[in-house]
Structures are given as structure tokens and as C-alpha cells.
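Side project, low priority. Logging it here so it doesn't get lost.
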Amino acid sequence: MASKKDLVNRSPDQPDHWLHLPIRLDFETLGYLLLILLALITRFYDLESRVMSHDESLHTWFSWELSRGLGYSHDPMMHGPLQFHLVALSYTLFGDSDASSRIPAAFAGVIAVGMVILFRRWLGRWGALAAAGMMVISPYMLYYSRYVRNEALVVPETLLLFFALFRYFEERRPRDLYLLAGALSLHFVTKETAFISVAQLMLFLGLYLARRLFTLQWREGWHKTTFTLGFVSTVLGVALALFTLFRERAASAEILQPELASIAFSPIVTLGLIFAVAGILLVGASIILSFGQRLRQEFPALDLLIITGTMTLPQLAALPGSLLGWNPMDFDSPVNSTRYLILVCIFLVLSVGIGVVWNLRRWLVAAIVFFGIYVVFFTTTFTDGDSLMSGFVGSLGYWLGQHGVERGSQPMYYYVLLQIPVYEYLPALGATLAGIFGILQWRNVKNRPVVGKGKQQAPFPAIGFVGYWAVTSLAIYSFAGERMPWLTVHIALPMILLAGWGFGKLFESVNWRAMWKAQGWWLILFTVLTIVTLSRAFGVIVGPNPPFQGSGLDQLRITGIFLVSLAVGVASLLALIKVAQNWTLQDFVMMSAGVLIGFLALLTARTAYRAAFIKYDQATEFLVYAHGATGVKTVMDQLDELSHRTTDLPVAFDDAVAWPVNWYLRHYSDQYFFGSNPTRDLLEYPVVIVGEENWQKVESLFQDRYQSFEYIRMWWPTHQYWNLTWQKIRGAIFSPEYRSALWDIWLDRDYTAYGELSGIDFSLEFWQPSDRMRLYIHKDINSLVWDRGVSPVRLADLTSAVDPYPLIEKQADLILGEEGSLPGQFNRPRGIAVASDGTIYVADTGNHRIQHLGSDGEVLAVWGEFSNLEQGPAPGGTFNEPWGISIAPEGTVYVADTWNHRIQYFTPEGEFLGMFGVFGQAIEPDYFWGPRAVVVDENGRVFVADTGNKRISIFTAEGVPLGQFGEFGWMLGQLDEPVGIAWSGGRRLYVADTWNQRIQVFYEADENKFQALFDWSIDGWYGQSLDNKPYLAIAPEGHICTTDPERYRVLCFSSEGDFLLGWGDYGVSPNRFDLPAGIAFSEDARIWIVDSGNHRVLRFELKPP
């Protein structure tokens, strides 16, 4: 609404409303229309094709649940609630799809381009147009405007904050304070980077206000002195507290879980905060005493500081709470909820008090705007009150914890040496140019003579503020623990605005009319031709294949390229000199700079286009992280086709592929998430998707029932830029081969030459780092669909294949141990042996010790500690993962000290007696390679399963070699990964021939001479992992029992190999196992099983079958 003053001053021809203003289609207007049209096309075109990344799928999944009426609860890990609400709205309007998920980001990207027009008065006519153009072609602005991340929303919110700030300094209207409050609130409900923006804003405003106050006349001299002391105390206190805070956070990250992180109480941090608070009180008191009511009228920076500070203050409760040892991520616990509620209320009351003292009406309107937006989104329109406290406390608390975690572990030069030079080189060049112009302009103003004195304050340095924002953003995000590619957006935005102003100044300095008259277009043409051709010639000289190196075809071709480039370059340079004779040096430099900027703009547009529309699914680009690969949609295409050709297709998937597979399976009604714990229920599913960490688990279960297809699910850019040193940089600069290879990567993301130099395969098929997955399709349904036409079929019972080992239910009657290192606790134990008195000895493998327990679990003795023979002496009684254990008839305890490659023996009480064996190939019987098991017969002979050497060695009780048998192979009598061994009184030795999936029986035909008698296959022992090591035991009745570790069961056979019984499955209950390993019988026919993965020992009653 127009004011009375406006109505009086309006000319008769001036329209009375902005809607009545005439539309002028000049060059500038057409330029903006074209840029907005390009923004619409580039932001909205083909949003469906790219695979959802890991983080995107989290955002889309919970947005989809919100759109279905299942609600939303704030989780700081996934940032603020605004994005979820906008994406849910998009689903409501356009349906749920990858494309509709990205519509809010794309729309925000277009809005951001259009908002640059608002800065025309500060950037200049051509500067704003240049900035808008860079917003359109910026690789980061384009890519993340097509990505379900918060950055696309933060860009227009930051622009709105800048606009409110600049305009308030010019016009001093309350509306801009309310606009600032709205921009801040939108940023806080979008992402926790709002805290960084607030810190940047308040620091600048504080310094700006301080500078202004120092130039004024104070009522009393001591007021100014007090202000100075307070200002210094505040700056030093905040710096000391922040430095110590971040240092302690980084140190504590190694021992604290991120989700439980809290900052230990530090006297230094407390001291810094005391200095800061005392300084703020001194500053406030001194300026109030000296300026009084003038503070409400003459200091716009103070108004903005108050609005920003009081809106932010209630959200800082996590900081003092963490310093007091209250975990901010546990804010909803009975104790902490009360504590944090009190803190938030105290800060709210303090904010209200400051607002009342300052200007109640203005503050109240600003607070309504800020908290109206904040509360509506954090509570999901008042349906989830708990999320409000999550916003007030959890937002800052979680990300303070993440600083020390350093997600991604990127180097501090991540933005300066990688992201900006590879993608945002044009804004970086423009920002540098703007800095030069700004310094020259400042010097001119500084040296300009003062013609008079007045009270009018100098205009707000808007361009200086943007430059400050660019520098501090680069510094803060480089220092922050989490350095991720998308955070480059926060650095690029102020650089683009600053570069726009710099390019505008350059553009305005050129007399275009005179250029046209002076054949300027010829100057541009010859300048471009000279730069391109001479650069090409120079590139050939410094490249890996310089000219004049031989008479071969390739050498002649390179020499020809050099000579032609040089000739054309020299000719164009002479023509350029001729055309430029009528130009001043300054005009020529400006024109050349303009040509270079135009060339870099085209190159930037090419970079953005390739990243967004060609290589968008590839990790060859550096602007992605944990990026979804095309394999995900390939798998989904296959599932969709299978689903169309069948009915009611069930699908199972594990935790490793849950994101983004969970999102893409949202419309599959019969889906089963089995986490990392596959059970036999999985056999009921014809299609299973599994990440590589669970392949061995499922393949031991699937056997040959499924056909598998392998794909890359997620990948990351190469880490070759890590650990840079000056030596590496110099080597790359001065090596023609490496220069050429790095140029190929920078220009085309072509890693071929670099791979040849480094010996790394950078082909997409073998790209690293990456996470792979497999699609398992049951052979029955596979052949049913693909071999018998396309008619829809109903899935048959896929578990109809009969398991050769029908299992029974059997409960343990005694459970010993739990995970830990105290006596009676275990860490992935392996071997077990039962003494004649019923006590048991357990090889506590992960704790590198032996435990002697009574039959009731009472700890009788514990001995051993870690020692690695490869790193130095390993005296007797020390171990490096003992696996096997056995007891001689007289009670001597023999232990297979696996990774020290030896056998040790002890008294029953654990006193060391001796040891034998050294590491080596199968040259001598006592050359071991990872012995896994040991057994002693009734005569005291010691049999050792020399697993890595594929043989069994025989020794006397003192370790004197007696013989050996077995060699690598699959024929009868040959072995491949022998593990468990068991001695039978009938001169038979049973061997678990693991990788041949059989039990072999060897007979002692002559003294210490063994020959294979027979064998039988085991439908199990699949996979070749370090955990899949089965052990054997012989019952008093003579039957054989063995463990099947990765199928979580125990199998028992007759002495001739006939299956008798079996039991077990995955789990933690008394009838379940997680990697059963060692096995032993007591004389009363009870069977002891080492449940390695559950860190315990189980005892079962086993009646003779």
C-alpha cells in the first residue's frame, strides 16, 4: 500500500500499482526470460532416469510415508522437515516416482535463478544478468537442483536472507526484518547449515556494528573503554571455546558412537564461554549507557543482530547441555527431557526479554513469522509435538557430534583443490576478479578527499558482504568435519554473486559502440584463434609425446599437429596485433578477459551438461558421493518384468541393499527384509537381492537352487586425490604423462591414461570404491518364465527341493558365557575339549587365551595373552588366535596357536610345557600354515590339521615328527582346507575336508602310515570364508557329529556316513546358533557346541539315535 508521501510525490503519468507498470522487452528483459526458460528446461528435463542415491532414497521413503498419512517424525540425521513435506506434497499432486521426488528441488532451482533479478541494484545491470547466467550453467547448481537434497532449497532461502539484509540497510522498513525472520526459519526447517549461516551473519553484523560504534562520539570515555574490553573479551572467549570444542569433538570421535556423542565438560570451554558472556554483558551495558534510545533508531545492524540472535537462541540448548554432559540425542529420556526443556525455556524467556527491551511490536511480528513456520513444519501441522524438541535440541546436538566423525574422511583441501577447480572454476575466477575491482574501488574511495562532514552513515557494503560470505563459507566448510560434495553449493552461491558483480564491472568497462566501430569482432575472432592454436601447440610440447621424436607414423602425426597449430597461431597473432593497433592496452586486456570468460562459460556449461545429463549415474564425476549406480534400476527392470509375467511375486532383500532398494520395492506387497541374518525362510522367496557382505551367508543356504546376477549398487569417486603432498604435486606437474592424464580427467573424466600410469583399473565394471549386490532368481521360476513363454503363471512352492538333512528342534540345557574379555566371557571362541573329569577347555580365540571351566560354567583357570610372532618374539603361553584344542589321556592340554603357526602344550592348570612348529610350506611335518585343529590319540600321538598346507601331520607328545599324509586335491586321500579332525579307537581318523565338502576317513594301515578308506559328501560347508571352518567330534557310541558354521546347524552321522539327525538355525535363542564351530562330547554323551558368533558355549543332551 502506498504511503501518503508516495502519493504526493507521484507524477501524473506514474502508475498507481505495480501491476499497471508497462512491460519493456529490452535486451536485459529478454536475457532474463531466456535464462529462466533455460533453467526450466535444464531443471525439469528427464528427472526420472537417474537412480536414487543412498541419501535420496531415505528422503523419498519417509516423504512417501508422510504422503500416505503415516506421519513424519523429525530425525536430525536426515536434516529438517521442509523437504519431506514438499516432496510429500509433490507425491500428492503428481504421484510417487523418481521424477516427482525431484520436482521440489527443480522448482527451487528455477526460483533461485529468477531471484537473482532482485539483486540488480547491488550487482549492477549486467552483473545480475551474469550471475543469473552462472546460476543456470553452474554444475553444482544444476546437478543439485535435480537431486532430492536440501541444498536446492537452501539456495533461494539464502538469497532471500541476503535480499532482506541489503534492503533493510537501504530502506529501514520493518517488513525486511520480518522477511529476514522468514528466511531464517525456512533455513532452519530445511537444514542445520542454518547455524553456520547465522554464525556468519552475526559475526559480520557484529564487526560492522563495532566499527560503526568506534567512529561515534560516546557520552563518557569510560563507556568506550568498557565497550572495547567487552568486545575483545567476547571475541577471544568465543574463539577459545570454539577451538577447544572442535578439538575435543575430533578427539572424542574415536571412542564415542555418533548417535551417542556428547561433549565432555571442559574447563577451557567453560572459561571461554565465561569470557564471552562477560564480554557481551559489558558491550550491552556500555552501548545502552552511551546511546540509549538512539540504539532503536540509528543502528540497523543492531536490529538485524537482535532478530537473528533471538530467533536462534532457543535452538542452542544442545551446546550448554552437552558441556554439562547431557547427551543431546537423548533429549527425550525422562531425565534429559526435563533438563533440556528447562534450558529451552530459559533461552526463550531471554529472547523475549531482549525483544521487549528492543522493540516489542517488531520483535513479536518477527517471532510469529519465525516460530509460525518453525512449529508448523517441525510438528507436521501440530501432529507430532516430540519433533519440536528434536528441532530445538537434536538438530544442533546431532551435527555437533558429526563434526568429529568426519563423514567421508575428505581432506581439508577437498573444496580448494578438487571441487572448485573441477566444477566451479568460472565463479572462482570471477570472484577473484571482483576482489581486484573491490580493492581498487576501496582505494579510490579511501584516497578521495573529504569535502564535508555529516552524520549520514556510509552505504552498506553489499558486495563486500558477499565477498566475506564466500571466503568464510570456504573456510568454515573446509574446516568442518563433514566435507561432502553437495556442500560446495554453499560455497559456490556467494562466489557466483560476487563473480557476477565482477563480470558486470568488466562488461561495463568495455565501450561496445567503439569496439564495433574499431573492428572489435575481428579482435575477438583472432584472440580466440590465437589462444586456441597456441595453447594446442604448447600442449603438444609439454605433453607426454612431444614433436620431432621420430619418423614413425604417430610421431609424424604429432609433429604435424604441432607445426600446423604453431603456424596458425603465429598467423592469427600477427593479425591480432594488426587489428589491435587502434586499441588502448586497457581496452585490449578487457576484451581478452571477456573472451576468456566467454570460453570458460562455454566450458562450464559443457561440464554441467555432461554431469547432469550424460554421466549422471557414474562415479567418474566428483560431485557425487555414495551414489546410486545403474545396476539398481537394471535389477528393478528385471523384477518388474518377472512380476508382470507371474503373479504375486515375493521379493526378499538384506540390510546392505536396503537403500535405495527399499524405495524401489515400495509397491511390492510381498516383500521380506531379512537384515543380515538369513534363515531358511529365505528359500520361500523366488527373488532375493543381497549385498556383498552377506553373499557367503546366503549362498551356503541357496546351494545351487538360485541363479545369480551381479551388479554395482553404489559407488564413490576415486580417492586418488587423498593424501596429497608437495612431492606428489610437483611430480604430477613436472611429469608430462601425469599432466596429460590429469587433463583427461579434468576435461572429459577419462581415467584411461591415469589408470595405465597408476596400474589401477578405472573401468566402470571394476570401479572402486563401490558396493556390489547380487540378484538371486530361483532356477525354477527362472526357467518357468524364460523358457515357457510369456503367459502369467502362479509361483509354485519353491522350497519343494528336499533338504537331505531333516532337522529337529533341540534346546540347550546349559549356556555359558557372553561377549567380553573378563573371565567366563568370550570373544568369538572356536575350539573346545572335554576332560575326563567333565570340565571343559575353550579356545577363546578373539581374546587370545584358553579358559578352563567347570561343567557348570565355573571359571577354574584362564591363561594366555596376545603375541604375534611376525612382529617379534612370542614366548610360550602367548597366542595369536588359538583355534584348536585337545586333551591327552594323562591331561596335557594341546593348543593349535593358529596364526603363530605352532602347537603349544600345557599342564591341566595352564602351566606351559613346550611347543613345536614354525611357519612354512609343507617341506617338513612341523612346517605349519595356519593349523586349525589338534587331536591326541590314546597313545599320546598328536595329530595336527595343517590347514593351509592341505595335510595332516603326526607327532610324538613332545613334538617329534612321526609322519604326514594328504596333499592338495579332490581325489580320495587328497585334501582341500582340512579343519576338524577326530580320532576313533578303531585306528581311524576322521577329517573335515572342508572345501571338498566331505568327511574323509583315513585308516592306519601301518604304524604312522595312513590311507584313505572312504568318504561321504556333506550338503553344506559352502563358501570359503574365514568363519566357515567345521569341526568334528566322535560320540562314545561311535557316531560322528560336525558343525556347519554358515548354515548354523549341527549334523550327526553314523561312523559309515549315514545321516542320523541335525538341528539348529540362525539366532540367539537356546536352539539357535551364529557360526557354530568347536564341538566335543563328554563321557556321559552330552555334546558341547561353541557358538562363536554369539560368543558362548552351549550344552545339549544327545541320546544315542
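Brief comment: Residues 513-604 form one domain.
Revisit when time allows.
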